Amino acid sequence: MSLMSEVGQKAFNLGVPIAVHMDVTYRCNERCVHCYLDHDDHGEMTTAEIKEVLDQLAEAGVFFLTFSGGEVFLRRDFFEIVEHARRLMFNVKIKTNAVMIHEKEARRIRALGVDTIQISVYSHRPEVHDAITKLPHSFERTIKAIRFLREQGLRVTIANVLMTVNSSDHSGVQELAAELGVQYTLDPTITPMMDGDTSVLSLRIPGEELPEIFHNPALVGSQEEFCAPPKPPSEEDLEGYSCSAGHSFCYISPYGDVFPCVQFPLPTGNIRQRKFLDIWNFSPEMKEVRSIQAKDLTVCSSCSHVTSCTRCPGLAYVEGSMRGPSTADCEKSFYRTGVPTENMLRQGLSKPRAISGTTAPLIQIRPIAVPA
Amino acid sequence: MPENCIYIARSSAIAARALAGEMMVMNSADSTFFTLNEVATAIFQAADGRTPLRDIVRDQVCEQFDVDPDEAHADAEQFVAELSSHGILLVSSQPLSSEAP
What we know:
The structure holds two protein chains of two kinds.
Chain A: H1 3-14, E1 19-23, H2 47-60, E2 64-68, H3 78-87, E3 91-96, H4 103-111, E4 116-120, H5 126-133, H6 138-151, E5 155-161, H7 170-180, E6 183-187, H8 210-214, H9 217-220, H10 223-226, H11 235-238, E7 249-252, E8 257-259, E9 269-270, H12 276-282, H13 284-291, H14 313-319, H15 327-337, H16 342-346
Parallel strand pairs in A: 1-2, 1-7, 2-3, 3-4, 4-5, 5-6
Antiparallel strand pairs in A: 7-8, 8-9
Helix pairs in contact in A: 2-3
Chain B: E1 7-10, E2 14-19, E3 22-27, E4 32-36, H1 38-45, E5 48-52, H2 53-65, H3 69-85, E6 89-92
Antiparallel strand pairs in B: 1-5, 1-6, 2-3, 3-4
Helix pairs in contact in B: 2-3
């Protein structure tokens, strides 16, 4: 186990929120076709409020802090926020589309000691990227920004969200990442919009196309390991937990709402009303999330994939129960290994039902009403 | 002031946080990641650039951990040299200002 994993496990065991993802705005200068956010400002936290939250997070033991959005640089105070975070000695990562980063901003990011900048690139073909972001010349601006950041010696990761409209471009984006000297990460997850609109799910890569991705060593590393049939779970496995959501990780929205994860829209409290540690330690919702062991899962506890599945409790919650299966992950487990999941077997399916259109329920992260 | 007086300050490039009494330290420049034990954490936290290392060892290590001063000082110099080689600590024979990002 690496030192980093050991520390992560220690934080998990102690219930310390070692990592937090904070969206500082939902506003954006791009209008990506797959985006799940409502880009209107419904009352973002002020600079002072965010600084106060950062103080509380430092006190709570948070070490890894990811700033995301929306587009973070649409906040005029963003550098002031990062500066405050770095003064509190957080390890800071930034997720951005980078179109507002020029040489000056790259230098400032470097001077602030930001760890990594993750940038969305959808295609190596400008016309495809721009068609997805709906911002003319965004590809050109984003790539130029990556070069500025690299000139400063900063670590950059290209995040390549795969969907139907760019599904054949991952190798081109990988080559582009190599040419730019940056890391590459791929994500085939598309989630419903905040207002419950599920039309974006039609952009999800059809399950039948997942094997091609899962069996590509350039994307998954060792294919034998990645696609290995599941091992029978031990008793210890069944005592285990799903993921770090609510255990050592959580998400904070621009409105101060705290959730177990960015993909787990279960409101647990608002830091305009309660201290962060009060929510983290005593929210009944947080406690419920962290009480769930593999043996408590209604369907998955008897599934052969239970130890190797990427089951997301947040997506399961969106489907109706945080103890139930996440169909998208059932689909991935099946297409990764060829072994049917318990969820499929109970429904008498030999292959997963297509997940698209209007099948997802209308629950997504949205602001919690805060009394004036 | 002793001739071999050295001052230590934390670099502005690092991230750090205590977890159950041990300090996690990461240098964003090269992603090196350390955890410091309690004694090393005490020295790291006192690295304000103004207090000589000898005084830090005397006040933060010898007093609190009941160790031999000479041995503690030798261990501290070795620890400081290692963290300095990774850009975590700045070392000087003159007082330093702890770098703010």
